[in-house]
Amino acid sequence: xxxxxxxxxxxxxxxxxxxxxxxxxxxxxxxxxxxxxxxxxxxxxxxxxxxxxxxxxxxxxxxxxxxxxxxxxxxxxxxxxxxxxxxxxxxxxxxxxxxxxxxxxxxxxxxxxxxxxx
Length: 118
Hints:
Elements: H1 3-9, E1 12-16, E2 29-32, H2 37-46, H3 50-58, E3 63-65, H4 68-73, E4 74-77, E5 88-92, E6 107-111
Parallel strand pairs: 2-3, 4-5
Antiparallel strand pairs: 1-6, 2-6
């Protein structure tokens, strides 16, 4: 089952988050989507979301990262000195097949069934 179909099978709420106070809401999990990890990391810091989100993850908030989201979560990134959250004990490797250009919007996802998903 792909990610989109899996999420559609859960009851969830999608919220646009553009300020730290949005992270003070109660939610059961967080998904960091694909995109361009360098841009996402830069925007998380510029919007003052990075430290608050990292603290939530370190305190046990369930988090799922796809593609760029996984890179943001990785403890190390192969052939790079800098990593972002460093909350997942993995080493990520960037796929450098083409240049990525674009913007991003971080999304909070409330997953009421996250704890029961096999």
